[in-house]
Amino acid sequence: MSTLLDNLNWRYATKKFDATKKLSTEDLNTLKEAVRLSASAYGLQPYKVVVVENPELREQLKAAAYGQTQITDASQLFIFANDINLGTEAVAKYIKNISETRGVPSEALGGFADMMNGAISNLTSDGKNNWTAKQTYIALGTLLSAASELKIDATPMEGFNAAAFNEILGFDKLGLNASVIATVGYRHDEDEAQHHKKVRKSHEELFITL
């Protein structure tokens, strides 16, 4: 546990990445697998995770992220895109996956499917999109923790024009919305932020035990 806390103390939102340092294929695959295994409501994972490496595409996205250099200097850019207007088709696909993975007849999962469909159908369109967007933040948290374990720098970012990202990446045609992004790579020696002490609330201020 002390190693986990040491790694979380080590990580910070990197402001300047070393563009010459790239993740190994093995480490990148480990991060992707960690995100794949992340918790989500019902296990439904109502989102896609797009990993952008193409330099030209990242230049376009950088302009839509107000010129932040992390977009182009980091090794990879992760874009968490939530499903918009989630419906019964996604639930049916998930039920099929459960059935095949666990060797359970799909008919035996009808109650679970009905519960999910009922919960989703009770939400407004905005409510559904808000809910699926929240799920992407759980996956983002898993990425940040996994990266710290590997001593890979990762920066979560909300400072971008989602509509522009959606247009550049064609998300509108895919029923997706760019919810939150993260850059991963290795800190530059000149990034002063790495020397700053981590500032967080004290246990007394943060936690309430009832």
Summarize the structure in short.
The chain is α+β, with helices and mostly antiparallel strands and 210 residues long. The chain is 49% helix and 14% strand. The chain has helices at residues 2-10, 25-36, 55-63, 70-73, 88-102, 110-121, 125-149, 162-169, 171-174, 203-206; strands spanning 47-52, 76-83, 153-157, 176-185.
Please explain how this structure is put together:
- This protein is α+β, with helices and mostly antiparallel strands and 210 residues long.
- It contains 10 helices and 4 strands; from the N terminus they run ααβααβαααβααβα.
- 49% of the residues lie in helices and 14% in strands.
- The chain has a 4-stranded antiparallel sheet, with helices on both faces.
- It has helices at 2-10, 25-36, 55-63, 70-73, 88-102, 110-121, 125-149, 162-169, 171-174, 203-206, and strands spanning 47-52, 76-83, 153-157, 176-185.
- α2 (25-36) packs across α7 (125-149) and α5 (88-102) runs antiparallel to α6.
